[in-house]
Amino acid sequence: MPLSIISLLLILAIILFHKKPAMSFKCLIVGTLVLILSSTGYVSDRVLQPLENKYESFTRSNRPVDYIVILGCGHTSDSALPATSQLQACSLQRLVEGLRIFRIHPEAQVITSGAAFDNNESNADKVKQAAILLGIPEHKI
User: Fold this and answer.
1) Euclidean distance between CA atoms 140 and 107, whole angstroms
2) Are 91 and 124 contacting, i.e. CB atoms less than 8 angstroms apart?
3) Where are the alpha helices (DSSP H) in the chain?
4) What is the model's pTM?
5) How far apart are CA 136 and CA 59, in angstroms?
6) Distances 72 to 106, 117, 127 between C-alpha atoms, Å
7) How far is it, in rounded angstroms, from Cα 128 to Cα 141?
8) Which position among 19, 84, 87, 104 has the lowest Cβ density within 10 Å, counted as fewest Cβ atoms?
9) CA separation for the pair 69, 63 (Å, rounded)
10) CA distances (Å), 121 to each of 56, 64, 78, in order?
């Protein structure tokens, strides 16, 4: 959780600013470096890759799959565009993976999730619309 560490370092830099300026400066520099390094794809990919490689991608299960849950992420509502074009990249990636698993296990029921926040339509509804456009039957969602 680099953001927690960064936040603590920056708060510490503010607290120490008048009493120990040298220590405050060091906290500020270290916090900034951790922020920059953890934000770059090269570093974050190298840190996460060993963890991700421990798990194989999902393939056909020997037992029937009852549910496939597609977690929400984000979208923008624009009635001039199809639902698939309104999804943010993270929602679209999750939907495509859910669709892949559904093709392997068509007996499963698909559950979409996601809030509306400042939108009039929830992400769950938008992902459902996109799933229907991509061929999942409405009664399965």
Assistant:
1) 9
2) no
3) 2-15, 21-39, 41-53, 83-86, 89-104, 123-133
4) 0.68
5) 19
6) 21, 12, 8
7) 7
8) 19
9) 17
10) 34, 32, 11
pLDDT tens, 75-133? 988 889 999 999 999 999 999 999 999 999 999 999 999 998 888 899 999 999 999 99
Helix (H, G, I), strand (E, B) or coil at 126: helix
Which is nearest to 131 in space by CA: 63, 68, 78? 68
DSSP string, 8-46: HHHHHHHHTTTT-HHHHHHHHHHHHHHHHHHHSHHHHHH
Local structure of residue 68 (DSSP, 8 states): E
DSSP 7: H
Q: How buried is 96 (Cβ within 10 angstroms: 0-12 exposed, 13-18 middle, 19+ buried)? A: middle
Amino acid in the structure at residue 127: V
For residues 48 and 2, is the Cβ–Cβ distance under 8 A? no
**Can you tell me which residue has the tokens 């892949």?**
100
Amino acid at 39: S
Two tokens at 82? 């199809």
